[in-house]
Each structure stands twice: as structure tokens, then as C-alpha cells.
Amino acid sequence: MSASASPHPSPPAEADPLIGRTINDRYRIVEAIGQGGMGRVYKALQSPLDRVVALKILGAGHDRDPNFYKRFFLEASVTARLTHPNTITLYDYGRTEDGIFFIAMEFLDGRTLSQAMQQEGPLAQERVIHVAQQICRSLREAHALGIIHRDLKPANVMLLRQHDDHDFVKVLDFGLVKFFHGDNPDGEITNAGTFMGSPHYIAPEQARNQSPDQRCDLYSLGVLLYQMLTGKVPFTAVSPVDIILKHLHEAPVPPRQLRPDLAIDAQLEAIVLRCMAKERADRFQSMDELLGSLKLVRQQLSGAAGAFSAPPPVTPDSLRPVAARTPSAPLDSPRTPAEALPSVTTTSEGGSRAVRPPPVPADALEERARWHRFTGMGDPPSSIRSIWLTTGAAVLAAAALAVWMGGARRQRPKPTVTVEHTARVVVGAPPSHPAYQPASAGVTLVTLTSAPTGAEVNDADGRALGHTPMDLPVSAGRPLQLVLKLDGYKPFPVLRRSLSGDRIEIAATLKKEPSKVEPQPPPVRRSVGYRDDPY
To answer: CA separation (Å) from 326 to 329, 442, 444, 476?
Structure first.
């Protein structure tokens, strides 16, 4: 409780005989701070803890109503079971020898929601949701214990300043509580022919004196939301009875229609109107359900919903190829054409000399860098085929010259290509086969063929490396991940965890793509519920 919590005036301190008195040798009353639903509230000092507490004293004049005392102790016993941070904490309760009934609670230094709205008018939408979520969490604990509040109103909601949160909620005054499941030996503790609650915030079933459940608190919270957003209660009249009749029979003016100047969110308005549905079955059925809807709207208002981190920007440095290594280094980095395959030509004197290839165009160098990122080798066959043909012819000429000079002529065997319905790998072809000789040690030459021919060879990132048939040099020990693609045929994956040996032949038969079937819409997924954080 707080000194500024109650709008009811208190009598002067000198006229109050309880000021300065010590209750049960523990609570010394310092001053009156407000008027409660069933009595007066005082600021007191608890001994020997020297703790400031709010002491609720049962008012006089109720001696002829035994149910009043029952409700007093019911409030104390129920509130003692509630431990949520958004619910006021009860320390002690009892009766003095001279018949004074008291409840000792935590002293709250803040202001009521009613005072905040009187001072500031309508509250900002995100602030409204922040306050409402805390009320939901307080009442969620009470409902889990089978308890409903039945008197939720702005005067029973305290706003405190805690660290950086200026609207930390405490729900007060469970004096009108009722157990809505389990055994309640005392039954309904009311006066015959009366109802309990505040006319501006009462649920229709309470007004009809029907047995309430937790959904009447949802209705009252809907009225609170309405008032926080618009600055006005949904129903007003001269007499309380007329207000209650409006709760029973009239639909509230939608908040956006009442206050078009405030730009109230449409989804938030829908939440408020659903809370205030006349029939209980049309409202939210639990505080958890309401919490989930409030959280979604709050995320949309704050722009947090659907936010994803953007991918890192592409910069020239991220596309720059790795610097070339020396021929003695492992073949897992790009090399220049001259380093990878030196050219040899014959002279008029019957000798031979090295001839470097012509300069490579800039676009070919860029494609070669992409080729290296996949293979670890130099030039791709599809982009600078002329270089391969020129240097390859020179190598064959030099090899033929060497054979002629040594007097040893060998017949060149023809490689065999086998086409099957699945990929076939042929390892261990004759090492003397000149067409399968790799550029250097540590490199596996992969020969790719397909039926039908002309399939596009793509790497794991979707980049095109060439078309079948083709030879692909890959550093030994590297994984091989390719996809062969041809219009009208299914993609054919080629996966090898590691390569070994000097050469590998891979042949594939591509299968026809089946006729396309009209895609079916995905099944509708129902929500499995919402789990909010513990507090």
C-alpha cells in the first residue's frame, strides 16, 4: 500500500485514536494513508525488524455482519498464498485482545493506476500493454490456485518505480476473492441479494449474480485496457444500476471510433473488445491466451517481430582469390598457366625450347579464380579452352619427339567410357596412358561423361564449371561435390568424400524429368499454445 494510493480522504491524525498505538506488540501505527474496501490502511513500523508496513485495520460498524469478518480472514489467508512479484506481499494477519482485526502487508511507495490516468490521460499503447501483461501474470498465479479477484479496477493496481521500470505493477485487494474450483466449505460469502464488484468494471455474469470464474477477471481487465487507451470507461450513467444494465445489454463504442485522434492499433482494439464480450465463451479463456496476443501486438508495435540479421556485405576483398603458391607447395591454391603446364615447342635445329603462353584476358582470369575456389587448381577448361588446346598440343609434340629420339614407339591405348544408369568410378587405369596423366603429383584427374552428353557441371555453390565430357583436376584428398544438369532431365549428384589415385572416371546416365504435378497447398498448422516467460 502507499500513502498516495487511496482517493478517500482520511480524518486528521489527532482525531484517530490508533495513531501511535502498537498492535500486538509488533506494529506501531505512524499515520493513516488511505481507506480500503473493508477498513482503513495505516503506515506502521514493525518491531524488531524496523520494517515499514501497510497495516489494514477492519473498520468499525460491522459487528452485526459475521460474513464481513469471514471475508476479512479469507482475504488474508488467500493473499498469503500468492507469491508472484506483481502481487502485493502479505506478512502477517490476526486479531488483538480487544477485538481489532489487522493485516500487515508490504508498504508500496507509488501511485495507483487511477491516479496515473487522472494525471496523464490516455497512456501510450506500448505502456498499456506493459501494464496489462503484468496484471495478467499476477492473476495467472491466482487463477492457477483456483482464485479469482472479482474487483479488478484502477484503484487496485499500483505502479511503482523499480530501477529503470517506472510502471512496475502490484495488484492489490483480494478482499472479494472467490474459489472457483475445489472445495469451499463456507460457500459464497456475500450478503443475500447483493453482488460484489465495482459497477464500472463488473462482468455481466457478476451483475446477474451467476457463479463467476476466471473469465470475469478477463472482462474487468478488458475494461481497464479500454480506459488506459481512451482515457474513459466504456459505460457511464448517473446511477450504478444504469451502468450495470449497460454492461449487460450495450456494446461498447470501439476505442478507435471513440478516439480516432490516438491512432490506436486495430489488433489491440480487437483484443480489448474480445475481453469485453458479453458471453464468457467469446472472451479469451485464460490469462495465458491473452498474454500471447498482447505479446504479438507489442512486438509489431516495437518493430521486433520478424527481424533478422542482414547477411554480411559483399566486398572486393571477399571476392579476391588466394595468392599463387610456388610449384613446390601443395596443389591446393591457384597457379598461373605457365606454372601449371609449361609449353614446349621444337626449333629448326631439332632441339626444343620453352615458350610461355599468350596473356590471359581479364574475364578468363576472373573465371579461373572461381574455378580455383572449387578445385584448388588453375584454369577451367570451359573458359580458356584455347590455352589448354595450345599447351596440350605442345606437350604431345614434345612427348612424340622424345619417343622418336629414344627409338621407343608405343601404341597409344584408347580410354574406355562406360555409361550406366548410376555413376561408375573407374580407378587405376594404366599409368602410361598419356591422356590421363595429371599435371603434377597430388592431383586426381576426374573424367566426367554423361548420356546424353552436354550436361552442365555445377559445383556445390551452383557455379557452372563446364559441360560433359570434360576433365576436372582436383587436389587429392579434397571432397568432390558436383551436380550434372540438363534440360528435361533430373539433376544428377556426384558426391565423393575424398579422392585418391591419379585418375578417376565418372560416367552417368541422366533420367528423364517426370511430368510436373500441380503442387498441393501445405497443410494448415494449428497453434500448439503459447508459453510465456515465468514472470
So the answer is: 6, 14, 19, 18
8 Å CB contact between 330 and 176 = no
Taking 3-state DSSP, the helix, strand and coil percentages for the chain, each rounded to the nearest 5, stand at 30, 20, 50
CA pair distance 278, 111, nearest whole angstrom: 31
| 3-class SS of residue 459 | strand
HSE toward the beta carbon, residue 232, CA cutoff 13 A: 12
Q: Helix 266-275 to helix 287-302 angle, to the nearest 10 degrees?
A: 170
Closest CA to 26 of 2, 3, 53: 53
Residue type, 180: F
Task: Give the model confidence (pLDDT) of 69-113 as tens digits.
Answer: 777 777 778 778 899 999 999 999 888 888 888 889 999 999 999
Q: Which amino acid is at 119?
A: Q
Q: What are the residue numbers of the active site?
A: 151
Q: What is the value of pTM for the model shown?
A: 0.54
The conformation of residue 512, written as its DSSP 8-state character, comes to B
Question: What would the DSSP string read from start to end of 96-142?
Answer: -TTS-EEEEEE---EEEHHHHHHHH-SPPHHHHHHHHHHHHHHHHHH
In the chain, ranges of CATH 1.10.510.10 domains = 112-181+197-303
What CATH superfamily is the domain 112-181+197-303?
A: Transferase(Phosphotransferase) domain 1 (1.10.510.10)
Contact between 79 and 106 under an 8 Å Cβ cutoff? The reply is no
Average pLDDT of the residues of the chain = 74
- And the C-alpha cell for 432? 602410361
**What is the grid cell recorded at 265?**
492499433
What single letter denotes the amino acid at residue 16? D
Architecture of domain 413-514: Sandwich (2.60)
Fold adopted by 1-108: Phosphorylase Kinase; domain 1 (3.30.200)
- CA 318 from chain center: how many Å? 31
Q: What is the DSSP letter of 81?
A: T
β-strand partners of 29: 44
Task: Give the cell for residue 393.
Answer: 598440343
Among 77-86, 189-198, 203-212, 274-283, the range scoring the smallest mean pLDDT is 189-198
Q: How far are the Cα atoms of 85, 157, 168, 179 from residue 134, in angstroms, in the given order? A: 9, 10, 8, 22
**Residue in this structure with the C-alpha cell 469451499, named with its chain if needed:** 184
3-state SS assignment for residue 60: coil
**DSSP state string for 164-232:** TEEEEEEE---TT-EE-SS--TT---S-TT---S-GGG--HHHHTTPPP-THHHHHHHHHHHHHHHHSS
- Residues 159-174 have pLDDT tens digits of 999 888 889 999 998 7
Q: What DSSP assignment string belongs to 299-350?
A: HHHHT-TT--PPPPPP-HHHHPPPPPPPTTS-SSS---HHHHS-EEEE-TTS
What count of other Cβ atoms lies within 10 Å of the Cβ of residue 373?
14
Q: Residue 401 is placed in which grid cell?
A: 619427339
Distance of alpha carbon 107 from alpha carbon 88, whole angstroms: 9
Burial class for 193, CB neighbours closer than 10 Å (0-12, 13-18, 19+) = exposed
